[in-house]
């Protein structure tokens, strides 16, 4: 195959990887602050995907417009989940929290299955087949828009953590739980807020992803797994690591899908995971003690 | 808090267990075909639950990919049977080292590099998914179109070739469950068992006390995988068909862990009780749904999710420990 085929596929993989990165960022934010592993991550993304798909088929609303509303819905969902269900579990062992979220995941994906049925749905925008030509590169318009939206959303999140008072307070909770309580921060509320933000990330990512992939109620677990692979690859608790991991996994999947059969592509994502665990267990950008 | 429940066998426990076993042996004479199938399914999950419990309940290592051991064993035994005509028990003997080796590889990768807790769980899922996709594309085992075992009418039950009516399968899985129970009991009373409990309660302290935690965690994952492998052989010969999507799927791995969690992680009898409670309730629910004429494909799963949620919130130790206190037997029946 000529080189520019590989190049084109690689660019597509990087663009999809940026959306993956935003999804994994949500997981990383939740873990970094609340120290809870969100096993319902992919399932929460499926909710956002269905919001986008249903809004498109019923009212022809472009997913790009839905980015913020959909993220807001997921924010509320994540906030309530943390406030009602997870906060009472904060002092329970790690695996208990994990199984709690597993239960939430099972309920979400099967409730979606009952409501929407098993069929795959997709969004057919006017620019679904459009593309931009850049020298030898042909860039898919949907992927470009999705990636651009993901980058903007990520930048906004970084700015929030860096420059706002609430963002600083959340970082304080992550750095020192007891210290944050001593200076009078309402840690439980900040946890709920953080979980909401993580959910908003995955909501935005899911909305964007409908431009690129089909939606079915049962895709959740594979995206949960993908998010974990990305976060572990990039480095636990490292926000830039989540983005880097996303791009790397997106690229790996795209090239593996081209070189071998597409159905084998997630095997290569797992292979990357195993390699990372072997040679750099703390992840690409993670610190040893993280 | 998980408290080791290994002390005090007690005559009462032995009596109760004996009565239970007698009831199980007599059961096929009193139930119809449908109930027999439900019992087989319950015992199947009771068996796997015990195998999983060795890792999570005893040694504190959460595996969410146990379907990989079932799937590997099922495919090894079924492939040997269909391609070479090798009998299932010999196939089982071949499946044990395959499953154990797979467990050892996962354990080595994880424990060597300090991958612990939920990240270990993720790694186990990743391996199960890896296997699912691999088998889905592997033509020797018919890839995604599935592997079928020849089904013919048999004049009599043949335990050696695992061909026969449901009653035979019932006794096979009942015997396996009883053997697993005794095995778990013996393991818990051995040096290995005590080391596992020490690791589960506090790994740092266990290491400080001179326990080679890496070695004992490797024992846990390989023994658990080897015990699980029989369930795979049973699955292959009971259902006579294997699809990678079905045997390796994440939902399979989750079904496996629900029984022990509901029954009581780390207890001997919890996985068995949990399997019966869960399977019984799920079958009742299916019956109600089909009787009401609705078609709800995800309803059983939602029900599993709600069960898990309720048990996690209300009974952190599972159903068995409080029930055992009520029955007047020590936290655990021996």
Order of H and E elements of chain B = HHHHHEHHHHEHHHHH
Largest sheet of chain B: 2 strands, antiparallel
C-alpha Rg of chain B (nearest Å): 20 Å
Beta-strand content estimate of chain A? under 5%
N/C terminus separation of chain A: 42 Å
Give your account of this protein's structure:
The complex is a heterodimer of chains A (290) and B (334). With 290 residues, chain A is mostly helical. Chain A has one domain. Chain A has a two-stranded antiparallel sheet with strand order 1-2. The longest helix of chain A is centred in the first third of the chain and has 32 residues. Chain A is globular, with a radius of gyration of 19 Å. The termini of chain A are far apart. The mean pLDDT of chain A is 87. With 334 residues, chain B is an all-alpha fold. Chain B has one domain. In chain B, helix 3 packs across helix 9, helix 7 crosses helix 9 and helix 11 runs parallel beside helix 13. Chain B is globular, with a radius of gyration of 20 Å. Chain B starts with 10 loop residues before the first helix and ends in a 7-residue tail after the last helix. The chains are: A mainly alpha (290), B mainly alpha (334). At the A-B interface, helix 4, helix 9 and helix 11 of A face helix 5, helix 11 and helix 13 of B.
Key traits:
heterodimer; A: 290 residues; mainly alpha; two-stranded antiparallel sheet; 11 helices; 2 strands; globular; B: 334 residues; two-stranded antiparallel ribbon
């Amino acid at each position: 195959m000529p080189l520019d085929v590989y190049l084109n596929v690689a660019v597509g993989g990087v663009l999809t990887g940026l959306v993956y990165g935003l999804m994994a960022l949500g997981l990383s934010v939740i873990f970094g602050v609340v120290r809870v592993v969100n096993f319902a991550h992919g399932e929460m993304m499926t909710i956002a995907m269905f919001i986008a798909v249903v809004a498109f088929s019923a009212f022809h609303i472009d997913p790009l417009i839905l980015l913020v509303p959909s993220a807001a819905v997921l924010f509320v969902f994540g906030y309530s989940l943390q406030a009602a269900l997870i906060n009472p579990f904060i002092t329970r062992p790690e695996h208990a929290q994990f199984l709690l979220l597993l239960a939430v995941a099972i309920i979400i994906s099967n409730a979606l299955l009952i409501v929407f049925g098993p069929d795959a749905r997709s969004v057919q925008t006017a620019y679904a087949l459009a593309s931009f030509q850049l020298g030898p590169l042909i860039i898919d318009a949907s992927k470009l828009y999705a990636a651009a939206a993901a980058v903007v959303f990520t930048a906004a999140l970084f700015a929030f953590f860096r420059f706002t008072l609430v963002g600083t307070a959340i970082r304080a909770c992550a750095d020192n739980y007891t210290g944050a309580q001593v200076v009078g921060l309402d840690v439980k509320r900040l946890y709920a807020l953080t979980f909401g933000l993580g959910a908003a990330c995955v909501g935005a990512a899911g909305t964007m992803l409908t431009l690129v992939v089909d939606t079915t109620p049962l895709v959740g677990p594979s995206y949960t797994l993908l998010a974990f692979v990305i976060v572990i690859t990039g480095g636990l608790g490292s926000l830039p690591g989540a983005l880097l991991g996303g791009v790397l996994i997106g690229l790996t999947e795209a090239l593996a899908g081209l070189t071998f059969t597409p159905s084998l592509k997630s095997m290569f994502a797992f292979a990357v995971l195993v390699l990372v665990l072997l040679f750099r267990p703390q992840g690409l950008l993670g610190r040893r003690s993280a | 808090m998980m408290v080791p429940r290994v002390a005090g066998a007690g005559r009462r426990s032995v009596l109760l267990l004996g009565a239970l076993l007698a009831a199980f042996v007599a059961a096929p004479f009193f139930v119809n075909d449908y109930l027999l199938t439900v019992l087989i399914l319950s015992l199947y999950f009771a068996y796997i639950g015990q195998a999983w419990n060795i890792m999570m309940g005893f040694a504190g290592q959460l595996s969410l990919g146990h379907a990989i051991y079932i799937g590997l064993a099922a495919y090894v035994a079924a492939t040997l049977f269909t391609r070479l005509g090798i009998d299932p028990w010999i196939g089982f003997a071949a499946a044990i080292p395959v499953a154990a080796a797979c467990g050892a590889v996962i354990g080595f990768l994880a424990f060597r590099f300090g991958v612990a807790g939920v990240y270990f769980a993720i790694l186990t899922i990743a391996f199960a998914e890896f296997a699912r996709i691999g088998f889905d594309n592997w033509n020797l085992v018919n890839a995604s179109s599935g592997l079928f075992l020849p089904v013919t009418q048999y004049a009599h039950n043949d335990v050696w070739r695992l061909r026969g009516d449901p009653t035979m399968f019932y006794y096979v899985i009942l015997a396996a469950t009883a053997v697993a129970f005794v095995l778990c009991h013996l393991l818990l009373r051995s040096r290995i068992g005590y080391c596992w409990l020490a690791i589960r309660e506090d790994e740092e302290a266990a290491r400080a006390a001179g326990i080679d935690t890496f070695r004992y965690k490797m024992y846990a994952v390989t023994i658990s995988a080897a015990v699980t492998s029989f369930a795979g052989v049973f699955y292959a010969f009971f259902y006579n068909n294997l699809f990678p999507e079905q045997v390796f799927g994440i939902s399979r791995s989750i079904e496996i862990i629900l029984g022990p969690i509901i029954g009581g992680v780390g207890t001997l009898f919890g996985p068995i009780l949990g399997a019966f409670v869960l399977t019984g309730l799920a079958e009742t629910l299916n019956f109600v749904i089909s009787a009401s004429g609705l078609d709800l494909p995800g309803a059983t799963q939602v029900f599993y999710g709600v069960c898990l949620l309720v048990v996690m919130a209300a009974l952190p130790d599972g159903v068995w420990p409080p029930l055992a206190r009520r029955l007047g037997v020590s936290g655990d029946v021996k």
